[in-house]
Every structure is written in C-alpha cells, then in structure tokens.
What does this fold into?
Amino acid sequence: MAYIHNTIVDLKQSSPAQSEFYQAVEEVLESISPILDSNLNYQQQAIIQRMVEPERQIMFRVPWVDDSGNIQVNKGYRVEFNSALGPYKGGLRFHPSVNASIIKFLGFEQIFKNALTGLPIGGGKGGANFNPKGRSDNEVMRFCQSFMNELYRHIGPTTDVPAGDIGVGAREIGYMFGQYKRLTGRYDGVLTGKSLLWGGSLVRKEATGYGAVYFADHMLNARGESLQGQRCLVSGSGNVAIYAMEKLYQLGATPICCSDSSGTLYHQEGIDLKLVKQIKEQQRGSLIEYLNNHPDAVYTPTSDYPADGHAIWRYQADAAFPCATQNELTEADAETLLDNGCKTVSEGANMPSAQKAVDLFIQSSIAYGPGKAVNAGGVATSQLEMAQNASMQSWSFEQVDQKLQQIMKNIFITTIDTAREFGQPNNLVLGANIAGFRRVAHAMIEQGVV
Ligand code: NDP
Ligand code: 2IT
It folds into this structure.
C-alpha cells in the first residue's frame, strides 16, 4: 500500500539508522492496512504520521563516579510517545545495547500494548546504556541518583510514570524513588514496581510472567487444549522468565530450559526454579552455577550456539516462551521449533521474534501470541499500582491477581475477536495491532490536532 510505504520511507529519512524502530513500525503498519483502506479518515487526520513521531524525546548526560573514583558518563533517554489514552507509561531499561532506536521501538510497542489493556495509560519508554553487571550496589545507587537528577523534572504521577524493564528491578526503582523524593519533597506514585514496604503492589513482580502464561492458557483453551503436562522452553532467567516458569509449574506444565546472556540451560526433569531464583535474584550470578547443584543438567555457552540462531529453540518442546530480549528468535529458530512439533509460542519479551519468524508462526497456524498482547500483564498491574497509590489503598494478592487474570482474559478476547472480524482468526498479530490502534486513533481524533 503506497500510503504505508511512503510513511516508512519518510520515517527512515527523518529518523536515520533506527532498525529496531522501523521493524516495530513496519509490523504494526502492515497489519493495520485493512482498516486504513476502509477508513480514509485515518489518512485525512494523518494519524499514522502523528503516531510514529514521539510527542517528546528527552536525551541527557548521566555522569557518575565509580568505586575507583573514575568519572563515568552514560546516555539517558525518556521517550514520551503518545498520551492520547493517559499519562505516558512504560519501563526503563539499563543495558549497554540501549540506544535511541531501541527505546523508540519499545515506546512505540508500548502505545498499542497499553491500549489493549483497556486502562487509561499512554505509551512511553526510557533507559540508559548503563551496564549494571559487575557494579557494586553503591555504584548502581550513584548511577540511579544521577539519572533521576535529570529525569525528575519530566515525570509525575499524572504525567509520566516509569517502571522497570531489563536491568531495572526493585533495587534500581528504590534508588530512583529515593532521589525523586529528595529532589521534589513529594511521596507519590511516580514510579511503579516499588517495594511492598513503601507503595508497591502485590503481584507486580510476578505480573508479566504470570500474564504471559495466562495468555498462553487462553490460546490453548480456545483450541480445546491446556498447558497441563506440556514441556516448555522459557528463554531468559530474569523477572519475566522466572515468574513465567513459576506459573507454568502451578498450571501443571514443566519448563525444561531457560537461559541468560551467557548461555542456555537444559534440565530434562524440569528446571529447579528455587535454585534459579537464588542464582539470579539473590546472587546476581550466571546460570552456569546451576551445574554445581545439578551436574546432570546441560549448559551450552553462547559461543557454542548455532550460527543462525540460539541453542534454546533447538530443544524439542510443546510450547516456547521467549522472555529475554528483542530478536532472540530467528527464522531458523522458528523453523526448528515448528519441525520439532512446538504448537504454542507466547512472547513474554518485547519483539523477541524476527519478522520472518513471526511470518512462519502465523502461516503455520500454531497458537502464536505477540508480545504486545502476551506481556501486557506487567504494565496493567503497574496501572493497578497507580490506582492503589492514588486512592491510598493496598489490595490483597488475591484481589490483584483476580484483576490481572480478568485483564489478560479481556486482552485475549479483544485480540481474537478482532482477528476474526478481519477474517484471519489465527492471526493474533493483526488482532492485537488493529484493536490497539483503533483505540488510540479514535482518542487522537476526538482530541484534535495536538
Ligand atoms: P531482566 O533484566 O530481569 O531479565 C532479562 C533476562 O534476559 C536476563 O536473564 C538476561 O540475561 C537476558 N538477556 C537480556 N538481554 C539479553 C541479550 N541481549 N541476550 C541474551 N540474553 C539477554 O528483564 P525482564 O525479565 O524484566 O525483561 C525481559 C523482557 O521482557 C524484555 O524484552 C522486556 O522488555 C520485556 N518485558 C518486561 C516487563 C516487565 O514487567 N519487567 C513487562 C513487559 C515486557 P542476564 O541474566 O545474563 O543479564
Ligand atoms: O515493556 C513493558 O511493558 C514494561 N517493561 C513494563 C512497563 C510498566 O510500566 O510497568
């Protein structure tokens, strides 16, 4: 379609060298083309051109002093992408690979994900090219304080509410909250993913992983199947992966693999989740340490991965949960999964599958859930944390989990109903993108040209 093609050509000119961002935009624009054809109002209102341009992008210097007394300088970002549905909402990522392209792809995805939750939250994302690995708690604290010294003037409980993402968990949120409070004198819900001691919500820690499994369960139930007895591959071993594995065990499935940035672990009898939590959450160590307790497990370092993909997707399993990072599942990985009989792929991470892998999953008619639907339980529970902070309440674990389950069910129904409406019942990419897009587009039209 010429309109979409021209939009992407213009985007590449005005925002050069942002491949991850183009990938996210192309996927959304291609799948919404059926409604662009039938509704010229979107074109007349320049909705697409407005949506691909962030409302505001903030880039800043983050200087800090390491434990040896050396001055370090990082690059900080906050992209306030779209506020049609509510305050900007989305995580902060601290990882050496962070750049403008990655933050923009994440912020763009966040707009549609947040719309799908049905809650009043706009889309944003931020972070820094800071590597927390190997840094002491004091170094992480000084970095977070310096990061907040700039960020605090751009955020607020009804304007922009950051949370965690890769490399940002309860420790980092704590240090950033402390500095925000010191700078502003305000004790308000300006960040989510806070500690339960001072304003956090029960279930927020578990929400993304649990939600990804709830979504997979809905996809299977709709096909007359369930997760009971299924053997699963879960990439990553961070916040999302750990709580996806926990929920899989609770629903009678067995995660047999997980991974980290150094390698992949396979344990035929099922991953010892208590040990993974200890290694990753407490010791901040490497998964290779798992072998000290379980010499019968198999560990493949990244140096031994196949040239065209990743060791984890080469194991035979019923279901795959990519929960680490973007483009961690290649076309060759997808081919192997399908050849080995994998029937479900549920994306806990953001954009984990390369575009060609996505195409293969859709063509094969397996149960394939795209990240922006599957991992929306995290941000949805963040909004529940905002609601509790604003009303000065704290809800029980069961109350929040019930709401999370209901939200994931609604997202699944909205997504599959929209896919059916457009005659492609197995294409949940199309369903999620159109459902999210319509909500944001209509809000933008009603709010005028702003
Ligand atoms: P964490 O930092 O807690 O964990 C990330 C995991 O992925 C770690 O095991 C890490 O390895 C591994 N990893 C990260 N980058 C790479 C890489 N380039 N190559 C290989 N492995 C890598 O992050 P989260 O669990 O919070 O986030 C995981 C994914 O889920 C991300 O895509 C994030 O955007 C998405 N997401 C997160 C949400 C949340 O609520 N946290 C909500 C929705 C989506 P190592 O342990 O060695 O660092
Ligand atoms: O990608 C995501 O949805 C997140 N990292 C969570 C965002 C949030 O505001 O909880």
User: Anything to note?
Assistant: Residues 58 and 78 are 5 Å apart (CA to CA). The two ends are 26 Å apart (CA to CA). The first strand starts at residue 56 and ends at 65.
